[in-house]
């Protein structure tokens, strides 16, 4: 723990002292009235597959060959944490997605998905433990997943209820996507110890949603909705809103339910159509959500990295998050783009994928690019916005989870007031606690204020 504390104390200093990137601009582009500057953070990488903004304010990165590193977002320096010895790369396979435990200070676990050999090519979900600057103690949470060198899915996302979503591909065995006895072609939902949550859609089954081909983007937005991007075959790539137990149509349906046989299947099976498609396909990979004042024209938007399309797509959302507007394409001169993450300062980090065997790499490939508004000056309002409580779900029905950005150092009271200002609930974070669940039974549907040391936030009870 001593080392971890040192990391976190260091990170607090970094977060408050980090100035704008000073690397030379490679190019700029406009988002409305904002000039976004693109610069290089790190070069000489080998197929960075996942970028995660960590609780230490470093970028945690996987590279497909098996390396996991922390990248300093100011200097770009790469510190290797481990190289997993049993990763087997093959075409699109290797070390893929990663997620960090939300209570990292007390549960220093890193979840990764990778391909390996065991009587054939397989895929597994492994939990690693971070200690003393390295990752070790591998624990397989879900193994022996059928795999081939393509269509392995493998994005990970931990939800505020402490369950883990994991996308899987159809491993080129198309019927598995509709077969609930197969873990392929799914979005799976697991507890953080690998067991199946008691409230999964089908008892004893890890399936959260099905009918997927090769989903490789996964993000939860501030509105509480979960979005996933998915590689189509030829005609259409997709962005879906994931809902429990919904069918996304593959292999009968690709993209929208717009062909005659698709329409029949969609009607019969209540298929959830994508909210956004690229036609023809562009090889959509990483997906993130942007809602920072640094680039106002990107607020409440999804950002998608595309491989074959060689571009970043901004997908604006409506207030409810259920409808996508017209896509805006940018960052078109850096080749294949695979992974991305957003910093609390509103910078977007995007990794190239020009050494994956499907492009002619430049001398500095692969690299992490920084996209930022260098004229943005954080205000007290935006600074406190970063330190808000995360309320999930919101709207909430039975229970709301209150999540702090960092654990408390001493007990902190949280009060909930109704629209007339009357206090209707009170609870406490204990010292060292970052997350609590609050039952909402007995509260009328409507708007409430959640008041804590982190300010006042609105909660909708439905
Ligand atoms: Ca279609």
Written description of the protein model:
By secondary structure, the chain is mainly β. The protein has two domains: 2-372, Neuraminidase; 387-461, Immunoglobulin-like, CATH 2.60.40.3080. It is built from three helices and 32 strands. It has helices at 2-17, 260-269, 380-386; strands at 27-31, 34-42, 48-53, 59-63, 67-71, 78-83, 95-100, 109-117, 121-131, 134-146, 156-158, 163-167, 186-191, 207-210, 215-220, 226-230, 237-241, 276-278, 284-290, 301-306, 311-316, 328-330, 337-342, 348-352, 368-372, 390-392, 399-403, 412-417, 423-429, 435-439, 446-452, 455-461. The strands form eight sheets. Strands 1-2-25-24-23 form a five-stranded antiparallel sheet, with no helix packed on it. It has a four-stranded antiparallel sheet with strand order 3-4-5-6, with no helix packed on it. A hairpin with a 5-residue loop joins β28 (412-417) and β29 (423-429). The model is unreliable at 1-20 (pLDDT under 50). The structure holds calcium ion. Calcium ion (CA) binds at residues 236, 253-256, 258-259, 262.
Describe this structure in a few short sentences:
The protein is mainly β. The chain has helices at residues 2-17, 260-269, 380-386, and strands at residues 27-31, 34-42, 48-53, 59-63, 67-71, 78-83, 95-100, 109-117, 121-131, 134-146, 156-158, 163-167, 186-191, 207-210, 215-220, 226-230, 237-241, 276-278, 284-290, 301-306, 311-316, 328-330, 337-342, 348-352, 368-372, 390-392, 399-403, 412-417, 423-429, 435-439, 446-452, 455-461.
């Amino acid at each position: 723990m001593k080392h971890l504390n040192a990391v976190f104390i260091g990170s607090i200093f970094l977060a408050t002292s980090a100035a704008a990137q000073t690397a030379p601009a490679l190019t700029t582009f406009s988002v409305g009235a904002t000039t976004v500057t693109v610069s290089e953070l790190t070069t000489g990488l080998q197929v960075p597959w996942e970028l995660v903004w960590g609780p230490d304010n470093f970028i945690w990165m996987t590279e497909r060959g098996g390396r996991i590193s922390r990248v300093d977002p100011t200097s770009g320096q790469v510190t290797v944490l481990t190289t997993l010895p049993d990763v087997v790369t093959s075409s699109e396979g290797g070390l893929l997605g990663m997620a960090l435990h939300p209570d990292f200070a007390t549960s220093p676990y890193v979840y990764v998905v990778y391909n390996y050999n065991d009587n054939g090519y397989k895929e597994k979900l492994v939990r690693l433990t971070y200690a003393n600057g390295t990752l070790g103690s591998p624990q397989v949470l879900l193994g022996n997943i059928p795999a081939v060198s393509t269509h392995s899915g493998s994005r990970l996302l931990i939800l505020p209820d402490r369950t883990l979503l994991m996308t899987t591909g159809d491993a080129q065995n198309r019927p598995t996507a509709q077969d609930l006895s197969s873990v392929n072609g799914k979005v799976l939902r697991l507890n953080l110890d690998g067991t199946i949550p008691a409230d999964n859609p089908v008892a004893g089954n890890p399936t959260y949603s099905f009918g997927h081909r090769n989903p490789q983007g996964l993000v939860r937005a501030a509105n509480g909705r979960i979005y996933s991007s998915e590689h189509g075959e030829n005609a259409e790539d997709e962005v879906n809103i994931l809902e429990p137990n919904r069918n996304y149509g593959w292999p009968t349906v690709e993209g929208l339910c717009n062909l005659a046989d698709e329409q029949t299947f969609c009607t019969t099976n209540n298929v959830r159509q994508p909210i956004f498609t690229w036609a023809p396909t562009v090889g959509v990979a990483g997906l993130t959500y942007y809602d920072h004042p640094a680039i106002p024209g990107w607020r409440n938007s999804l950002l998608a990295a595309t491989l074959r399309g060689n571009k970043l797509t901004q997908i604006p959302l409506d207030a409810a998050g259920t409808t996508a507007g017209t896509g805006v394409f940018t960052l078109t001169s850096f080749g294949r783009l695979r992974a991305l993450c957003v910093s609390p300062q509103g910078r977007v980090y995007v990794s190239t994928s020009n050494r994956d065997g499907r492009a002619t790499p430049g001398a500095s490939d692969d690299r992490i690019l920084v996209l930022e508004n260098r004229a943005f000056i954080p205000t007290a309002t935006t600074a406190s916005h970063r330190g808000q409580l995360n309320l999930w779900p919101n709207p909430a029905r039975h229970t709301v989870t209150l999540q702090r950005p960092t654990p408390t150092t001493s007990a902190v009271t949280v009060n909930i007031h109704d629209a007339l200002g009357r206090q209707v609930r009170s609870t406490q974070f204990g010292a060292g606690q970052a997350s609590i669940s609050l039952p909402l039974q007995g509260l009328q549907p409507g708007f409430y204020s959640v008041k804590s040391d982190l300010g006042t936030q609105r909660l909708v009870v439905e």
